[in-house]
């Protein structure tokens, strides 16, 4: 019986078979990927994907706690990682520890993820020294969308050096892995070769040490827009719309419920 990997086990997958991961926000979705993914991330993308928010900036600790606990109930064989929401960790290492500890306590997550490179290194070291494994997230960091000026590719041209420095900083600070989002493939490869912790790509490179996607994107369930780096492996959005249309037609035609879905007035004899 396989048990869930720990952050150190994920770290040890550097350079080996690629690390497989997806986001999840609910128990049934977590159950579908349990043991198939090495780790499952309760991303703050939950705000856009499940709550209809325009960005991840409106996501709260309460939302991360409720969805984190729901996902935890669906996992026994994959590591659970929970995103720290905007405003819950940037102020100081102490603030970050207080909120990371609350998330780990209330969700039973084995690690947290936070956005930022060089400027978050001190906080990452502070958390790791106090028992909080940290996954870093650099490149396109959606919580900084207002200062980045949009969902642009990060690390092109003269930005490349800064991104390499960010990767080294989070690795040196003790992060057990780092997400690289929307960065040029060649830069992702350079970074993957330069640091000792696994890189988890999303819109990065097949040579990263692992990959992650937002599960609703890859299932074709979230269809409001599709980033270039998303591949739809399923058509659940289309399937769902067709099923709802078929249900509506059958209700209006009185062909649902059929006899097999209704109950007789006599108790069945044993
Ligand atoms: O919130 C999220 O889903 C993420 C992943 C896309 C890395 O941060
Ligand atoms: Na996120």
From TrEMBL:
Per the record, GO CC terms? cytoplasm
Under SUPFAM superfamilies, the record lists: Phosphoenolpyruvate/pyruvate domain (SSF51621)
Its subcellular locations are:
Cytoplasm
Gene Ontology molecular function terms on file: 3-methyl-2-oxobutanoate hydroxymethyltransferase activity; magnesium ion binding; methyltransferase activity
- The enzyme class is transferase
Has keyword Cell inner membrane? no
Cofactor(s), by name? Mg(2+)
Record-annotated residues binding 3-methyl-2-oxobutanoate? 44-45, 83, 113
Which residues are annotated as active site? 181 (proton acceptor)
- The protein's assembly and partners: Homodecamer; pentamer of dimers.
The UniProt entry, under PANTHER family, shows: 3-METHYL-2-OXOBUTANOATE HYDROXYMETHYLTRANSFERASE
Function of the protein: Catalyzes the reversible reaction in which hydroxymethyl group from 5,10-methylenetetrahydrofolate is transferred onto alpha-ketoisovalerate to form ketopantoate.
User: What protein does this entry describe?
Assistant: 3-methyl-2-oxobutanoate hydroxymethyltransferase
Write down the species: Roseovarius faecimaris
Gene name of the encoded protein? panB
